[in-house]
Design a protein that fits this description.
With 539 residues, this protein is an alpha/beta fold. The protein folds into three domains: 179 residues, Alpha-D-Glucose-1,6-Bisphosphate, subunit A, domain 3 (Alpha-D-Glucose-1,6-Bisphosphate, Chain A, domain 3, 3-Layer(aba) Sandwich), CATH 3.40.120.10; 223 residues, Alpha-D-Glucose-1,6-Bisphosphate, subunit A, domain 3 (Alpha-D-Glucose-1,6-Bisphosphate, Chain A, domain 3), CATH 3.40.120; 131 residues, Alpha-D-phosphohexomutase, C-terminal domain (TATA-Binding Protein, 2-Layer Sandwich), CATH 3.30.310.50. It is built from 17 helices and 25 strands. The strands form five sheets. It has a seven-stranded mixed β-sheet, with helices on both faces. Strands 20-21-22-23-24-19-25 form a seven-stranded antiparallel β-sheet. A hairpin with a 2-residue loop joins strand 13 and strand 14. Helix 2 packs across helix 5 and helix 7 packs across helix 13. Bound molecules: alpha-D-glucose-1-phosphate-6-vanadate and cobalt (II) ion (CO).
């Protein structure tokens, strides 16, 4: 039955770095989901006759959101929805399905690395036909719509059983329920040297993969245990749970604790990896060894010739401004294009679509390539395994060889979480006003060359985006400040610190960047303004 329902706007439906993320309780308010989804439809010229992918990371409330999207899409005349079985699709798998099926876009139901459950977060990311998240101009338009929305339209024919693969009709709309894993597996098998990785594992190379009770479990079991032949139990926390079993599914040094303990323990495996809630982020570990995401991007780019899917040549590489400059040296060496973007994957999409880059990555444990338009955790992990299989070297040896050739960017990120929003905004405002006066000043051994707001001019659509503040020192060291755009409580201040060393490559990162971090927090008056003497998370 077709119904038009009156509603009133919510004033907080502004998408952040990647989609709209809110506490589950916020999403559970009457019409909250409907308002947001109908606003997306309204701002893209409607969905009549269009096809969308729908799926997510299996978190609490996704099942309800999917049924609502079905009703809204049918009510607005969509031709077809392609939905992952049981509502499951990792973010990279969804991107692949959008591209493969040439759909008009997709809805990915995830708050990514934010915890889930009734007291956790839920989220919706909206992608367009590129397979990547909609650009700022579109999300601005959607936000505008959410502020004036007065009604939405649904076709209500009850709930759809998402457990069976196959096609059903919902009014005039078709719903195809698909295997969430098949196309993704086929894609990665086409990119990497699976026989070589199989052989490596057969010869005793040991892996531990932590899915953190989130979406990659079924993908990882299939790829690492079934296809590549790693022993059963290689993938831990492999069943996607609605509340991630209470885990914070962010694969970093703080939250992937179980894996870290294994990798730093006795008889540690050779290789450890973890992925986040929706499978787009990853962390790489060797035995007793941690690879920073910034270094990882540099290593992947440097070794592209070892990978069947890339060996014929690559375009350029890009990184977010907050990410260390390690990959810039690789780009220079290989004489390929190099770009620095604001934080968030959507800024890479234009660069990939226009063949300016092949690889891209962020310091926040994201890496990917133009095989899709999202970051891809399992892709990055397979890339590392392919390099190891091709070179016979350990993670640590690969990293040391890299630093010996290129020097090392010591790098750390400091997060100050749940700061009062006004306090955080005032801190940034104060910092911004102070920056011009800092140029030329000296702090201990460091002299400031540049202190600027980071402004990105998109070379493809000419849009201009401001994101964060960058201080560059005369020795190449950098400090970057920005506020997170993915949190759901208060504000999170992120401070990123980098120090480059040509030959002194075997020090502890904290020893190398601790001094700079102190300068960074002093300049921003973090302790005085937030009462926090120490960061909540350091990675
Ligand atoms: C964070 C990261 C950013 C990443 C974004 C989405 O954003 O810093 O690099 O692209 O999360 O990641 P912010 O604004 O909180 O710093 V996820 O895995 O959505 O999909
Ligand atoms: Co994610």
């Amino acid at each position: 039955m077709l119904k038009t329902i009156k509603t009133a706007p919510y004033d907080d439906q502004k998408m952040g770095t990647a989609g709209l993320r809110k506490k589950s309780k916020v999403w559970e308010q009457p019409n909250y989901v409907e308002n947001f989804v109908q606003s997306i439809f309204n701002s893209i010229g409607g969905v009549k006759g269009k096809t969308y992918i729908v799926g997510g990371d299996g978190r609490y409330f996704n099942d309800i959101v999917i049924q609502k999207i079905i009703k809204l899409a049918a009510g607005n005349g969509a031709a077809k929805l392609i939905i992952g079985q049981n509502g499951i699709l990792s973010t990279p798998a969804a991107s692949k399905l959008i591209i493969e099926n040439k759909t008009d876009g997709g809805f990915i139901l995830s708050a990514s690395h934010n915890p889930g459950g009734p007291n956790g977060d839920a989220g919706i990311k909206y992608s367009n036909s590129s397979g990547g998240q909609a650009p700022q101009q579109v999300t601005d338009e959607i936000y505008k719509n959410t502020k004036t929305i007065a009604q939405y339209t649904i076709f209500d024919n009850g709930s759809v059983d998402l457990s069976k693969i196959g096609t059903v009709k919902y009014g005039d709309m078709k719903i195809e329920i698909v295997d969430p894993i098949k196309d993704y597996v086929k894609m990665v098998m086409g990119l990497f040297d699976f026989p070589a990785i199989q052989k490596l594992i057969k010869n005793g190379f040991k892996i531990k993969f932590d899915s953190m009770n989130a979406v990659t479990g079924p993908y990882a079991k299939k790829i690492f245990e079934e296809i590549l032949g790693a022993e059963e139990g290689t993938v831990i926390n492999a069943v996607p749970l609605p509340d991630f079993g209470g885990l914070h599914p962010d694969p970093n040094l703080k939250y992937a604790k179980e894996l870290l303990d294994i990798m730093n323990g006795k008889n540690a495996p050779d290789f450890g990896a973890a992925t986040d809630g929706d499978g787009d982020r990853y962390m790489i570990l060797g035995s007793n060894f941690f690879v920073t995401p910034s270094d990882s991007l540099a290593v992947l780019t440097d070794n592209y010739k070892l990978i069947p899917g890339y060996k014929s040549g690559i375009f350029g590489a890009a990184k977010s401004a907050a990410t260390s400059t390690a990959v810039s040296r690789v780009a220079k060496e290989h004489k390929i294009g190099y770009y620095e973007t604001p934080t968030g994957w959507k800024f890479f999409v234009n660069l990939m679509d226009s063949n300016r880059i092949t690889f891209c990555g962020e310091e926040s444990f994201g890496a990917g390539s133009n095989h899709i338009r999202e970051k891809d955790g399992i892709w990055a992990i397979l890339f590392w395994l392919n390099i190891i299989a091709a070179t016979g070297k350990s993670v640590e040896e690969i990293m040391n060889l890299h630093w010996t050739k290129y020097g090392r960017s010591y790098y750390m990120r400091f997060d100050f979480e749940e700061i009062d929003t006004k306090v955080a905004n005032d801190l940034i405002e104060n910092l911004k006003n102070k920056l011009p006066s800092l140029e030329g000043k000296t702090f201990g051994e460091y002299k400031i060359d540049n202190a600027r707001s980071f402004v990105y001019n998109d070379p493809v659509d000419n849009s201009v985006t401001q994101d964060g503040y960058v201080i560059t020192f005369s020795d190449g060291s950098r400090i970057v400040y920005r506020l997170s755009g993915t949190g759901s409580v208060g504000a999170t201040l992120r401070i990123y610190v980098e120090k480059y060393e040509k030959s002194n490559i075997k020090e502890e990162p904290m020893k190398m960047v601790g001094g700079l971090a102190k300068i960074a927090t002093d300049i921003a008056e973090v302790a005085a303004r937030t009462g926090k003497e120490k960061a909540d998370v350091m990675t």
